Amino acid sequence: xxxxxxxxxxxxxxxxxxxxxxxxxxxxxxxxxxxxxxxxxxxxxxxxxxxxxxxxxxxxxxxxxxxxxxxxxxxxxxxxxxxxxxxxxxxxxxxxxxxxxxxxxxxxxxxxxxxxxxxxxxxxxxxxxxxxxxxxxxxxxxxxxxxxxxxxxxxxxxxxxxxxxxxxxxxxxxxxxxxxxxxxxxxxxxxxxxxxxxxxxxxxxxxxxxxxxxxxxxxxxxxxxxxxxxxxxxxxxxxxxxxxxxxxxxxxxxxxxxxxxxxxxxxxxxxxxxxxxxxxxxxxxxxxxxxxxxxxxxxxxxxxxxxxxxxxxxxxxxxxxxxxxxxxxxxxxxxxxxxxxxxxxxxxxxxxxxxxxxx
Length: 359
Ligand code: PHE
Description:
Elements: H1 4-20, H2 24-35, H3 40-47, H4 53-92, H5 111-125, E1 129-130, E2 136-138, H6 139-142, E3 162-164, E4 174-176, H7 182-190, E5 195-204, E6 216-226, H8 231-246, E7 252-259, E8 262-271, E9 295-304, H9 306-311, E10 320-327, H10 328-336, H11 349-354
Parallel strand pairs: 1-5
Antiparallel strand pairs: 2-4, 3-4, 5-6, 6-10, 7-8, 8-9, 9-10
Helix pairs in contact: 1-2, 1-4, 2-4, 3-4, 5-8, 5-10
The structure holds phenylalanine (PHE).
């Protein structure tokens, strides 16, 4: 075992195994096999003591040289393999900071939501509070308290979606609210005066779906009740939102109309924000937003009917108020020249994108 050829063979085996180790784990196994406690060269070293004294020095030198060579080879390979590993980690774990990261489509608010918030913001900026009411509403709030007579045609099932009733046994049925005006009543009954509220929300009517009608749509309602409010205040509030949403300097026009809960009542038109009435001049290009009328109808309005105030326990000799309501889809359609209301809920992202999505 201690013969020169044997020691040389052990050294050669060890060096070959070290050179063949391709990774740090493999080198660890090689170290154990060729330099560990039970490695041939270690066992050979232990044999030296058993040799006759004259032979010990030679054998000790041979084995010592071989063990030193193995140790050095191990150390050198260790350094090499660590360097290789570090190099590999640098490549494998490298982060390519130029890779695009925003591949997923980001969610965004719908144009109807954006319009609703924009309208509400105009009033919140003027000091109004946002008030909301239920979509499933008592018939009393939706109609009776708003001074609709019991036989008013709007209550008929072809206009109103009834959840309960209108069976005479049910004294006040339950409906899907047909407008946001019941929030006027809820606000008047629960909030202190003076009162300035804006109420956006979903409404329902049993209309057949076509380019301008949808059984589900949104309205926004404004109600102000204070001492000394007049139609001039109503006019001012309407002008403020028209200018904020459709553009500065647009004129508004009020024409007599009828709503049971306002007296007097009017419909509100604004000067067409696209052609600014240019299309009405002889020989001018037609305007598709106002159909060359120069005006577009945008809202219903009026002074709160004293009977509504009385129904809510408010003294109509001391307080007066104004209210108006408008369709949000309709506002989106007018503002962006959308011809078909169905585009507002088809869910086609190309529609939302074209109108400028906001996150
Ligand atoms: N609620 C009415 C409608 O749906 C609109 C309106 C609101 C009219 C407030 C006057 C005052 O047509």
